[in-house]
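Posted in: Structural Biology > Protein-Ligand Complexes

Title: Requesting predicted complex, C6P in pocket

I'd be grateful if someone could produce the 3D structure tokens for the following input. Sequence and ligand are given below.
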Amino acid sequence: MSVVKIAPRGAVALLDAASVRADFPILDQQVNGRPLTYLDNGATTQKPQVVIDATTHYYRHDNANIHRGVHALSQRATEAFDSAREKVRALINASSTAEVIFTRGTTEAINLVAQSYGGSQLEAGDEVLVTAMEHHANIVPWQLLCAKTGAVLKVAPMDNQGALLLDSFAALLSERTRLVAVAHVSNALGTVNPVAELVRLARAAGAVTMIDGAQGAPHNRVDMQALGCDFYAFSGHKLYGPTGIGVLYGREALLDAMPPWQGGGDMIRTVSFEGSTWNDLPAKFEAGTPHIAGAIGLGAAIDYIEALGLERIAAHEQALLEYATGRALDQPGMRIIGTAGEKAAILSFSLAGIHPHDVATILDHEGVAIRAGHHCAMPVMTHFKVSATARASFGLYNNHADVDALFRAITRAQEFFSQ
Ligand code: C6P
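-- Reply #1 --
Done. Output follows.
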């Protein structure tokens, strides 16, 4: 079994987890008579008070539709919404805010690309290449596209540690490959894919690249210009922001050439019964009233994580992963599922003789929140010959005491089932 790599920490001051924790009021509660230990951050993260305040402030003081009214409230709402987009742009180092499309989340962003780019560009016999560790959100939209166009879905395999087989990936690329869609980080395994290298290979083969960053953007700084991908998607709610808001980054030249995917208000320049013309980016892909409060909340979440420092967050989470992995290796009957050399702070596991759902239920009785199931990555479960795993996933407010609480509860579950 390979050992988890530790991010270089020398240059980065560590997070003060205790003071950070105080920023998240939800963490200060008892669940089933125990202090809450929240380890389901891969599913969604908790929100700091500043995010709650930003959305409340909008509804309390500035609530109005954007880009439509000349009145003061609409101007304030528009300013806050536009400034959130600029914060996203800066976070991911996109060249311009035209490249930042607000969506409902990662799922909607990938569907947008599949339907608009894929639907207009792919033909029968073209190929879409994904990997064996994708979330359903980065499989099913491509299957729908293939069914519609006659394109073919190809799957790059992974090894038994959950690492992508680079040679096989490269061998699957050909002049027929039109689109490569890859997870930055696997939600079921924690594997960090070498996305820069994958993008380089895909581009050399002439393919367009879509990175599913749902589990990538929250754990590492991502830089669109350095990465060179064509599309990158992530969800606000996994980045300490609200649900219902997410981002599609798209290279401007591609977005410009793509047809709209939904019609309605805001995405048009002119409408007549003879035909309509489209608005500039990013409005062309944002039909209807957007999730204004969500975008504002996401902007506040970005301010929050930038103030803490994404590098410090990454180092802190890697330290926790290293500690939890060491504990797991010492725990009798515990199998880690996903042991790639490069991992984000996700620990998928099974306990001998106990169904993952029972593990999660007993942990819940101990106040420890984890997720159990297939994690919307059924092919990953098939690969590892399990129907489900238990999964602890760490966020910036978790600490060593949370890992200790996890392992206390795991031992309790094992004792309970050995009776
Ligand atoms: N994974 C998890 O518990 P949405 O639902 O659109 O915000 O994100 C979808 C998605 C896409 N890709 C990856 C890699 C993901 O992890 C997720 C969401 C959650 O792992 C819910 S299944």
